[in-house]
Amino acid sequence: MNFKIDEFQKSLIDWYLEEKRDLPWRKNNDPYRVWVSEVMLQQTRVDTVIPYFERFMEKYPTVADLAEADEQDLLKVWEGLGYYSRVRNLHHAVKEVHEKYGGKVPDTKEAFGSLKGVGPYTTGAVLSIAYGKPIPAVDGNVMRVMSRIFNMDDDIAKVKTRKLFEGLVEKVISHEDPSSFNQGLMELGALICTPKNPSCLLCPVRDFCMAFHEGTQNDLPVKKKVKKGKTVQYISFILEDEKGNIIVRQRPSEGLLASLWEFPNHEVLSKWKNMVTDFESMLGKELGIEVDVIEPICVIDHVFSHLTWKIHAFRARFRGDFVESEVQKVIPIEKVENYPFPVPYQKIWKAFKKLRGME
DNA sequence: GAGTCGTGGAC
DNA sequence: TGTCCAAGACT
């Protein structure tokens, strides 16, 4: 097959300019705006991101606004979007841009690419879209599209393969319009060159595609399967006093769901005889209060990328002097939702409200 | 290089 | 219910 680069570029870019979706972050090319969208879109679907992006840009329209933001407020805006270190890293990086670059997002690979949370993909995406730089932006879409166009069976789960594709894109990227070229590859992957049942008959670069030529498009890309993680059981109490106050606590600042809030809980240990009574007495000693379980709320199965939680949630009442701290508080029931909670605890809270007839 | 780090939608 | 993800980065 005779692969003419300029014809390939034109076919892809013409198609993109004609068919691109009208998405909120495509309203203009403000580098900060593009940057925020790219961070939100990491491993996250477009439909999920849209409402979060709108709210985020309304609350933090500029670098200066975000630089001055409060960490807990940011987590609340990000609540439910997942991969919470993204927003912490973004905050850190934006503060650096604010202080070190006077609020102007740097336009070089070296400066922008060394910011926290900005990897090879985000570097290429932001610099090509916002500044028109011919730098590859290789994500899952691009690897799928390229592996089909060049009929390559390299395992796209490997870092080495991403680098291979970056080298390839460098050779074929348009220097006229790098933005439309990069976005065109991704848009093609999202709309036409889909993981399953690609719409090859509608594809603008079908004539350049070796996999279509060979009929191998359904076998590509090759990706090693990830093994699913183990299940860990937890027991959790929503603890109320007579006045309707609730105990909440903050998770550690590093690791899974860092700095988000939750209800008191503990992993169910195999040495326990009865998780309800064992946790009841353990919590009572730990917090210096009397704890009485009232009734079960629900059981939540929550699947993460690498493990599963099974949480047994109960209503309970507490009496005595609870000692508060920065990470462990008694708050009025109507203020619970001011705190950022991960989804499994949101579900428990919702079930609790229903049980108590609060909705 | 292999784990860690979320969530909800499609099939 | 199970599987595979979706515009990745960090350790």
Can you give a write-up of this model?
This protein is α+β, with helices and mostly antiparallel strands and 359 residues long. The chain is built from 14 helices and seven strands. The protein has two domains: 5-219, Hypothetical protein, domain 2 (Endonuclease III, domain 1, Orthogonal Bundle), CATH 1.10.340.30; 231-355, Nucleoside Triphosphate Pyrophosphohydrolase (Alpha-Beta Complex), CATH 3.90.79. The chain has helices at residues 5-19, 31-41, 46-59, 63-67, 71-78, 85-100, 109-113, 120-131, 140-149, 159-172, 178-191, 210-214, 275-287, 343-355, and strands at 231-240, 245-250, 261-262, 265-267, 290-303, 308-319, 328-332. The strands form two sheets. Strands 4-1-6-5 form a four-stranded mixed sheet, sandwiched between helices. Helix 8 packs across helix 11. The structure holds a DNA duplex (11 and 11 nucleotides).
In short:
Adenine glycosylase active on G-A mispairs. This protein has 14 helices and seven strands.
Keywords:
7 strands, four-stranded mixed sheet, 2 domains, DNA-binding, three-stranded antiparallel sheet, alpha+beta, Endonuclease III, domain 1, 14 helices, elongated, Nucleoside Triphosphate Pyrophosphohydrolase, 359 residues, single chain
CATH superfamily of the largest domain: Hypothetical protein, domain 2
Provide the gyration radius in Å: 25 Å
Strand content of the residues, in percent? 5-15%
Distance between the termini: 64 Å
Percentage of residues assigned to helices:
40-55%
| Uncertain spans | none
Structural class: alpha+beta
CATH class of the largest domain: Mainly Alpha
- Largest beta sheet: what is the strand line-up? 4-1-6-5
Number of helices: 14
Largest sheet: 4 strands, mixed
Question: Architecture of the largest domain, CATH level 2?
Answer: Orthogonal Bundle
CATH topology of the largest domain: Endonuclease III, domain 1
Count every beta strand, where a strand is a DSSP E run of 2 or more residues.
7
On the 0-100 scale, what is the average pLDDT?
96
How many domains is the backbone divided into? 2
Approximate shape:
elongated
Q: What is the N-to-C order of secondary-structure elements (H for helix, E for strand)?
A: HHHHHHHHHHHHEEEEHEEEH
